[in-house]
Design brief:
Length: 263
């Protein structure tokens, strides 16, 4: 099987992961080209946002329909057919995760490509074009050792969550852009956790969650319950991604259980 870049993806157990990484990388390159060609005149404009989102979406959907024609596809606000709920395989994609950050010329946007199969996330790739990095489950990265200091928690820069006092008193908040970028910050060791209260799109979270699970990070709802994908709402509320050694404390503190103490 050959890609549009002239590369061959072997049909092995990791083929889906390799495909996800290739597509995320290529879509990220496309977004950078669009951003660069737009210049300063279009930065901050709805025209740039719409054009970039559409071009990345068209590239990813066309590629997946060509290479995985029998698989279902979920793209936020664009493609969502009820039949996906009965599908065995579903590609969960966000072509431009963090469009506000993208049009502002900020680096904290992402491209998210994940595969859900038979109830589990089987593959994922997260491109951070502003940093020139791409992470994929086909070759999981090693999370760096934690730096000394207080726990740092990535949160939305525009809608920071209302955190329980026990959490607020024991962590340092790090406001960031897109959902994928925040999960990427945990993977890169920039922060110790990512916490959200408001529902986030499965399309923005699935790739990062697949990667986090692959490298042994903790992923759950605030109460420790398992995350479920390919739901009717296609949303996840009260999301927690953190280093495994801090999971017990975060779950207790976020869910209001007694005995959480200090981290």
């Amino acid at each position: 099987m050959r890609t549009d870049m002239g590369e061959t993806i072997p049909r092995t157990a990791s083929a889906d992961g390799q495909l996800a990484e290739l597509l995320a990388r290529r879509a990220g390159m496309l977004l950078l080209e669009i951003q660069r060609d737009a210049g300063t005149d279009l930065l901050g404009s709805t025209e740039l946002r719409g054009s970039a989102d559409l071009q990345a979406q068209e590239y990813l959907t066309a590629s997946l329909r060509r290479k995985r024609p029998s698989d279902a596809l979920l793209v936020p606000g664009v493609i969502d057919y009820p039949a996906r709920l009965a599908a065995d395989r579903l590609w969960i994609v966000d072509p431009l995760d963090g469009s506000a950050e993208f049009v502002e010329g900020r680096p904290d946007f992402a491209v998210d490509v994940a595969l859900w199969e038979h109830g589990e996330l089987r593959a994922g790739a997260l491109a951070l074009p502003g940093l020139g990095e791409v992470f994929g489950t086909s070759a999981p990265l090693e999370v760096p050792d934690r730096a000394p200091g207080p726990l740092r928690v990535a949160v939305s820069r525009t809608r920071p969550p209302a955190l329980p006092p026990r959490v607020r008193q024991n962590v340092e908040l790090a406001p960031m852009g897109s959902v994928g970028y925040r999960i990427g910050a945990v993977l890169r060791g920039e922060v110790d956790a990512y916490v959200s209260a408001d529902p986030v799109s499965e399309c923005s979270a699935a790739a990062g969650i697949a990667l986090a699970a692959a490298v042994g990070l903790h992923v759950s709802h605030w109460d420790g319950s398992e995350l479920t994908f390919n739901t009717a709402s296609a949303e996840l509320a009260h999301l927690l991604v953190c280093r495994e050694e801090h999971a017990t404390w975060f779950v207790a503190a976020l869910s209001g259980r007694t005995g959480a103490g200090a981290p």
